[in-house]
Amino acid sequence: MIADYLNQTATWKRTVGLNEYGEPITTSQTIKVRWEGKRRLVRDRQGQEVVSEARFFCLEEVQPGDIVEYGGREWPIIAVTEIPDLDGNIIYREVAC
């Protein structure tokens, strides 16, 4: 259903660990998204209210702390909301950056 609306692409940089300097080690994958440059207030992993500059919708299992590259900019993922269908299966994710 939502897959028809995912007409943009972004690069998902999944964090898989940290190097000896404490910097994230990532793997990259191109994903289909629906991107919206919409500012809103969201809660991060620690429960703090922070301003999100954009949001996007996708099917992949992105997580807070991962990075998405879109429009020539790297966007850290702040929060992820999983949207279930009536059977409880996750059908897509709404992601705040």
Question: What is the fold's blueprint, element by element?
Answer:
Elements: E1 8-18, E2 24-36, E3 40-43, E4 49-52, E5 55-58, E6 67-70, E7 73-76, E8 79-84, E9 90-96
Overall description:
It comes from Thermanaeromonas toyohensis ToBE. This is Phage head-tail joining protein. This protein is mainly beta. Helices cover 0% and strands 59% of the residues. Strands 7-6-1-2-5-9-8 form a seven-stranded antiparallel sheet, with no helix packed on it.
Overall average residue pLDDT:
95
The helix/strand order is: EEEEEEEEE
Q: Gyration radius, to the nearest Å?
A: 14 Å
- End-to-end separation in angstroms reads 23 Å
Percentage of residues in DSSP E strands:
over 45%
What level of helicity do the residues show?
A: under 10%
- Low-confidence runs of at least 5 consecutive residues: none
Large-scale geometry: globular
Largest sheet: 7 strands, antiparallel
Helix tally? 0
**What name does the CATH topology carry?**
Thrombin, subunit H
Total domain units: 1
